[in-house]
Specification:
DUF4194 domain-containing protein, three-stranded antiparallel β-sheet, 15% strand, JetB, 214 residues, alpha+beta, Arc Repressor Mutant, subunit A, 8 strands, 45% helix, 2 domains
């Protein structure tokens, strides 16, 4: 096995990094290539991503033993894992689902402006404004519930929060390109049709297993 041949030649630090990236992938589904400094907006590279890309074959071989598949999107800069048996999927609640879809709408609106990275920066104010405008949630969510939903999306490396847990309207949210794998163009068009035709949050698919999110 290529994995064993490579692994026995690893240094102790490389073995530790191998174990780390496996755990990150299985726990968070995604690993992104770049991160944004909240103060300078500069982009730095993620060591974990480059290790995964370098040893993609070995990691894939190891993961397949337990029914997991590794994929790397070099264009948008992220790695992801999926269960080959279709199990172990994360179920999002209604608020998490609404936020995810609205963030995908914002990402699509700003894609043409992207230059050096595939990251879109928005704010809690813009997010909440669109939720209210499109009437995708039956009431204004409490800040505690909104914070919990955002933390869930952060945990799965779908967003970053540049101002920590600050819940003010100008608190910045970085939408990561991993959102493209969860909400493809077809799902986005379905949401846009729903907004135009009904403005009814009850028609939005919620509380279901999110394909691509483990």
């Amino acid at each position: 096995m290529k994995f064993l041949e490579t692994y026995v030649g690893f240094s102790e630090s490389e073995k530790e990094l191998f174990a780390k990236v496996i755990n990150v992938l299985l726990s968070h589904t995604f690993v992104v290539r770049d991160s944004i400094n909240p103060k300078t907006y500069s982009i730095s590279t993620n060591r974990d991503f480059h290790f995964i890309a370098r040893y993609q074959d070995e990691i894939q071989e190891y993961l397949l033993l337990s029914g997991w598949k590794l994929e790397i999107d070099e264009v948008y800069g992220f790695c992801s894992v999926s269960n080959t048996f279709g199990s172990q999927r994360k179920t999002l609640d209604k608020l998490e689902t609404v936020i995810l879809y609205v963030l995908r709408l914002i990402y699509e609106e700003d894609r043409e402006k992207l230059q050096l990275s595939h990251y879109v920066i928005t704010s809690i104010g813009e997010l909440m404004g669109k939720i209210e405008l499109f009437r995708l949630y039956e009431k204004i969510p409490k800040k505690t519930h909104l914070n919990e939903a955002l933390q869930t999306l952060k945990y799965y490396h779908i967003i970053e929060r540049m101002d920590g847990n600050d819940m003010s309207e100008d608190s910045r949210i970085v939408i990561l390109p991993t959102i493209l794998q969860l909400i493809n163009n077809e799902k986005l068009r379905n949401l846009e049709s729903l907004i135009i035709e009904s403005n009814d949050a009850e028609d939005l698919s919620v509380g279901e297993e999110m394909e691509g999110l483990q």
